[in-house]
């Protein structure tokens, strides 16, 4: 099984100047490093899909040990550069390029064990997120504000119709045809609403959660494909949440994911730094030295 990761730098850089980006992102560098190093610990083939800036940062400067690098995401900036809130497009474009089974692992997710039990599954997702109010709010607002809404999202699934969705922190599988259709539908969803996307800025609406995770969930349901989850499906929105952040039990959990704003919390960032220092001290030292010398440029 191939592990893939993606980094589209534009959403990071579009709202900050270079010096601000450098000063605010020491934690990001450590998170990226721990994620790929953990993946390489369990899988021989870990590939990166990024743009020119991402390659300069992650490969040329930090020398992260990807087995192959694809510089292909600059085209997204050319077309979608003014829409810096569409951060999931880099992931979806990366899925669309795959022609063999894969797992895409977010840069803030850390594999703790091989995902052996899921290698033969047609479709895999990290976990199932039950509606906590925000997903349903996203759907309601987007249906009012967008001109095009894919029919597949008007689902009759009791499990999905309130906005509940599979989390794509780790996503993949063997059904490449499904992912091709999913990615094509997702880009059609975005492209048919370009004239309205700037109206979403400043509002508390997570459009990427809908054109990635919710669309993925609804399309799988429509096609009758069972989605295997790395975590058991919970009864409430918070049942599985704590286990995603459990660095203290990293010998027993399958993976850790600093979901959402948890990647910004000081306590979690200290745990990332501590884990990187303990497990991969040479990379910890390299990042600290380059950061302190202000050698990191983007």
From TrEMBL:
Domain DUF6734: 1-289
InterPro entries: DUF6734
Superkingdom in the source lineage: Bacteria
Any Pfam family matching the protein: DUF6734
Name of the protein described by the UniProt record: DUF6734 domain-containing protein
